[in-house]
Structures are given as C-alpha cells and as structure tokens.
Design goal:
This protein is an alpha/beta fold. The protein has two domains: 208 residues, Rossmann fold (3-Layer(aba) Sandwich); 64 residues, no CATH class. The protein is built from ten helices and eight strands. Strands 1, 2, 3, 4, 5, 6, 7 and 8 form an eight-stranded mixed β-sheet that branches.
C-alpha cells in the first residue's frame, strides 16, 4: 500500500449539527432557520419522524421569509431502524438537497424499532444485544459522515442522573442536567452542538470548533438564518484565499448578491490575508449588497400590499 503524505490544507467540509432541547424549546423552528442560512441558493430537505409535524411550519411567516421557495419533506414511520434513516438520507442526497434537517434523530435510538428495541429483541443469554444495535448505529453514522449535505439533527433532551460512589463506597445520585437522547458517542461526531433553553429558546454551546467560537461569545441571540450563513461561510472556506483568490472573489460576490447582512457576516469570517485579497472589490461588493437589499424590500412591500388587498 502506498501512503501519500501532503501538506494539510483547509477543505470545504459538510457540517453535522445537533440541536437538542425539551418539547417546546424551538428545535424544529430553529433548525429550519439555520438550514436556510446553510443552504444559500440550495434546497433544504426535512426528514420527519413526528407524524407529519414538520409540515406545520410550511406557512409560518418566519420560515416563509427565510425560505421563500419552501422546503422539501419526507416522512418515515416505525420501525425507526438505522437502515431506514440511511435510506432516507440517500433519497435526499439524490434529490439534490444542500441541507437536511432530521427531526428527530432520537427515534433512531429509542423509538419503536430503534436501537434500544433492536438490543432488547435480539438478546444473547438473556441480555440485551447492544453489540448488534451499536454496529447498526455505527453503519448509519458512517454514511452520515460521508454525506455531501449539511445535516442538522433535532434531538429530544431530558434530565439525566448518574450514580457514583463516594470515598466510603456509598452510592450517590448526581444530576447531569439536560442531556440529548441519543447514543453516548453521537456528540463526538458533531461539528457543532447546541442545547436550546426552554422558554427563551436561546442556544447553549455544548460543542464548537475553535474557529467558530467568536460566533457564540457573550449573550447568545436566537438561532437565525444569519447564523446559518456564517456557518456556511466557514464551512465553505476550502482552499486558502492566498492560494485561490479567484474562488474567494466569486464567493464574496455570491454573498453580496444576498444582501448587506449576508455580506457583512461573510466578511467577519475572513482572515486578514483574505480581506486584503478582496479589498479592491470591497466597495463594489457593498454596493451590490445594498442593491440586493433594495430588491428584497420592494418584494416584501409588494407582498404586504397584496395581502392587504
């Protein structure tokens, strides 16, 4: 076997993101907004395991504004096997979706026919067969890691308590707070993990790459389309600008065409060297972004007027 050893270079890589929370914490709504920003001009898919509840947001004003062309949806029902999730993801890939929201990935672990049932229904010597369940789960995760789409997982969360022994050997119950309901190593596969607070719906960062930490400093805003745009700018970084300036220039134009907010968000993710590459085009791009803002405002005004008539 020949092993090629080359200098490490940043490549554009699809992201795996988890949003967890209790019922009513805004998981689905937040996931769709985030997906809208991540998708750019691409389409958003939605894999629904909640008996059609994903369609409830199709006519939400906030979602319609973020996703003017809507989103594509498919349902899966029990048994919620890892294989059924894999097949659904493959279908959305073939459909051409840029981003996929899975709501909820918790069913794959503890829903009817999911990994917990697989372990219980295939016992060995009277004990749950976790080896088989985790093997099937791992196969699914390997496929998701190889997907060309950004994937956002909605996860249910619940309070968890662990039992530990103190120095005297006495058992104690220690609360660990809200934890996502999924296989224990699921979080390690995520690029970014957020826990949404009940009531406020604000995200608490539980896992984040160091380059993205500036996005989540100070008091957290609600999850938004703009947050998704900033994540996309980072994920699409690809070859460094000093090596491929043409690609960076084209990327800047694409963001400017989406408006000032998108372009400013893109600019804030750049390094000093990247900004120098774009400096000669910066004013031109800002004007392009302003024109995009004007077009968007006219379209919104027309829509508002049409609704009033």
């Amino acid at each position: 076997m020949t092993v090629s050893i080359l200098p490490a270079k940043r490549k554009a890589v699809p992201m795996l993101i988890s949003l967890s929370g209790v019922s009513g914490s805004g998981n689905t709504y937040s996931a769709l907004l985030l997906a809208a920003g991540l998708a750019g001009k691409g389409s958003v898919g939605f894999l629904d395991t909640e008996n059609g509840r994903g369609s409830m947001y199709a006519d939400s004003p906030g979602i319609m504004a973020a996703l003017p062309d809507g989103y594509e949806i498919a349902e899966i029902r029990e048994p919620f096997t890892p294989e059924s999730y894999t097949a659904a993801v493959e279908a959305f890939e073939k459909h051409g979706c840029k981003v996929l929201v899975i709501d909820s990935a918790t069913h794959e672990w503890e829903g009817e026919g999911g990994c917990t049932d697989i372990a219980e229904n295939n016992k060995l010597k009277g004990m749950p067969n976790w080896a088989k369940a985790k093997m099937l789960h791992k196969r699914m995760m390997n496929h998701l890691l190889a997907s060309s789409m950004h994937i956002i997982f909605c996860l249910r969360a619940r309070e968890k308590t662990v039992i530990i022994k103190d120095s005297s050997g006495k058992e104690q119950f220690v609360p660990k707070g809200l934890q996502p309901v999924q296989e224990k190593n699921f979080a390690f596969e995520m690029t970014l993990s957020l826990l949404l607070e009940e009531g406020t719906h604000r995200p608490i960062v539980t896992k984040c790459p160091e380059p993205l930490l500036p996005l989540f400093q100070g008091e957290q805003p609600l999850v938004s389309k703009e947050m998704g745009r900033k994540l996309r700018a980072w994920a699409d970084g690809g070859v460094p600008a000093e090596e491929n300036p043409e690609a960076l220039v084209n990327q800047a134009i694409e963001y400017a065409a989406q408006g000032t907010t998108a372009y400013v968000g893109f600019w804030e993710t750049l390094t000093g060297k990247q900004k120098k590459v774009l400096l000669s085009k910066h004013d031109e791009n800002k004007e392009l972004a302003r024109m995009a803002d004007d077009r968007q405002k006219k379209a919104e005004d027309s829509l508002t007027l049409g609704l009033q008539l």
